[in-house]
Design brief:
globular, alpha/beta, three-stranded mixed beta sheet
Length: about 425
């Protein structure tokens, strides 16, 4: 399991099924809500001749990660919770929803059963779509089509933001940063922007402004860092639109920029979209990477060719045993990303001779995992630990034993 990777629809669509299997294997993908909804919205699109919308969505669902990764919580919910004081870590951790809090053997954590998104992808792979999903797809497409980018751009220009005052995307990000770093009276405007963006009911204004006042009337960045990040992306988009650095002809630009709401939660962001290529670097930390989709696709294909030369007996052991890491002496893009975002010790592990499994230890581990899965949940009042620093998180998932040309799990695995 490699670095945490945020990906967009354009990247996954560009992959073959086998390449998608390798992406799922060598990275821990962030299934962004926008990817899910954008895929679903294809039910309302005209697709290439010879295919139905259901077939088109099914093809994307076939490639969706299933071995690792997890759906990320919705940015509006995360931003709202941040305003109310929730700690939303801005590092390479995927914030999830749901999960059953449990305590076992003196340790506390969460058990996540198969997510609704994963269940939906499995249905879509069978070309099964619920009526409510079709209605949601229609609503999403209508929302996209009704977004007036020309009007937004005109409003920003009326505020004095033009190509003369904002000469680059870097300038646009700089304008946003200066605005969001101010304390005091300016921070009131920042907070109001966040309240409007997250559609927080006015009945909570007194509570939120009171909490903000007790914390020294600090900037939104100091008060609710993740909420500030979402506001920054939104303002950046509107300023870049007004200055002419993002076009107004394609309503999908608004959706594409929305992927940046989730950029704090990954090691790398991979996309085959030129808008992401231009904008994403302005929102990534120094310890993050933007990866151009065609480059990663090529390296996935290269690794596939290397492992295809292995014996059938080796390949039937499954990718978890065949390729637990990239090759120890490999220096391709995937290995470089592992070097940068994981401890370099993975190369020593990859070079070491594999140690035989201890059947007794494996049985004990399976028994412990099963005990966690069956442990009764505790009530919200009984949670006496920091959810962002739990002792364990168990994620249950259904994995296809053979996917495309590859055994993901051992061919002879029982159950």
């Amino acid at each position: 399991m490699g670095p945490i990777a945020l990906f967009d629809k354009s990247f996954l669509q560009s992959l073959s099924l086998d390449e998608a299997v390798f992406f799922d294997h060598f990275f821990l993908p962030v299934i962004c809500p926008l990817f899910y909804v954008e895929t679903l919205s294809d039910l309302e699109k005209h697709v290439r001749e010879g295919r139905t919308p259901e077939q088109e969505v099914g093809i994307i669902a076939d490639k969706a990660p299933e071995m690792s990764g997890y759906p990320c919580a919705y940015h509006v919910d995360l931003g709202t919770n941040a305003l109310f004081g929730a700690n939303i870590p801005l590092d390479a951790r995927i914030p999830t929803v749901g999960g059953r809090p449990v305590k076992l053997d003196g340790k506390s954590g969460f058990v996540h059963e198969e997510s609704p998104v994963a269940q939906a992808f499995r249905r879509w792979q069978e070309r099964e779509f619920l009526a409510v999903e079709r209605q949601f797809a229609h609503m999403w497409r209508t929302t996209l089509n009704n977004l007036d980018l020309v009007r937004i751009a005109a409003g920003i220009r009326a505020m004095g933001v033009t190509p003369a005052t904002c000469r680059s995307l870097e300038d646009a990000k700089g304008i946003v940063d200066v605005f969001l770093e101010r304390d005091g009276a300016t921070a009131v405007h920042q907070l109001n922007l966040a309240l409007g963006l997250f559609e927080v009911s006015p009945e909570y204004d007194f509570h939120l402004f009171g909490r903000w006042a007790t914390q020294g009337r600090t900037s939104l960045k100091g008060f609710a860092p993740y909420a500030a990040h979402v506001v920054a992306v939104e303002l950046f988009f509107q300023i870049a639109l007004g200055a002419g650095f993002i076009g107004t002809a394609d309503a999908n630009n608004r959706t594409d920029v929305g992927y940046l709401f989730y950029s704090p939660f990954c090691h790398l962001f991979v996309s085959s979209d030129n808008l992401h290529r231009r904008c994403a670097p302005h929102f990534l930390r120094d310890d993050q990477s933007f990866v151009w989709g065609p480059d990663l696709k090529a390296d996935l294909n290269r690794l596939m060719s290397l492992y295809s030369a292995r014996s059938e007996e080796e390949k039937e052991q499954g990718l978890m045993r065949l390729a637990p890491t990239p090759l120890a002496d490999d220096h391709g893009l995937i290995a470089q990303l592992w070097d940068r975002h994981l401890l370099p010790a993975w190369r020593q592990r990859a070079a070491a001779s594999p140690q035989p499994r201890d059947p007794e230890q494996d049985a004990q581990l399976v028994a412990h995992i099963n005990r966690l899965a069956e442990a009764p949940g505790i009530s919200r009042d009984e949670i006496d630990f920091d959810p962002t620093d739990a002792n364990f998180v168990q994620i249950q998932r259904r994995v296809t034993r053979r996917r495309g040309s590859w055994w993901q799990l051992p061919k002879d695995m029982k159950g």
